[in-house]
Amino acid sequence: MMKHSYLILILCLLTGYASVAQTESDRPGRQFIQLQSGDVVYGNKIQYKSPIFKSSHFLVDDSLKYNPSMVNAFQNNEGFFARVEAGNSQDSFAKRILDGPRIDRFYTSRTTYNYGYSPYGYGYSPYGMGGPRSSRRRIYFFSKDNGPLYLVNYENLEQVLADNASSMALLRKHKKDKLINTGISILGGGLLAAGAISSFSNSQDITNGGNVSISPLMYAGAGVLGAQFVINLFQKDKLTQAMEVYNYQLKQQ
To answer: What is the pTM assigned to this prediction?
Structure first.
């Protein structure tokens, strides 16, 4: 009787193990591509490829290729990405950095060029003809309830967060801080300009052995702008806080 019970137990364990193994084998890969048609292609490895002499493409499990123009969103080992503009570039997709429950936040990077007349741009310099100075900057987007992506700015967020009082308070604080920062920038720039004019007019003729004196207004202007930079450096972006508060309060309900 005891041996019969052991056999039944072993058979049950084997059956359960086989069922789990079958479920795991049938489960689609954690990574996927969502096509513009709405179809979803699952895989264990999703890669964006941009060969030098070939067209860019998405590669699924080292075998299936998809033109980026066919892709609306994708998930790989770097995270979830959604399309923000037409094109085949990887920058046409934004990476999600805040995941709901209702507001998602994304970012992508853009390369900007400065063609100014300086050693850093096109034009004459002591070192020869210069090239354009480039830099990468982040652009942030958001979506609500898995909808389309919009630029993160006061006007767009004001519309979608209007049903949350705490988020709206943060948006109003952002608008107020922006006005104050604009005023401080004008004040600091004005002091610098006034100081430069004063320094120039009050300086003695250098050819007669005089020295150029720097007006205290220039130090004041630099101090105002420097203090503003330091304060802003340690302040958290109110627009981001408004989105985070919106999601947090929903989780508490």
So the answer is: 0.69
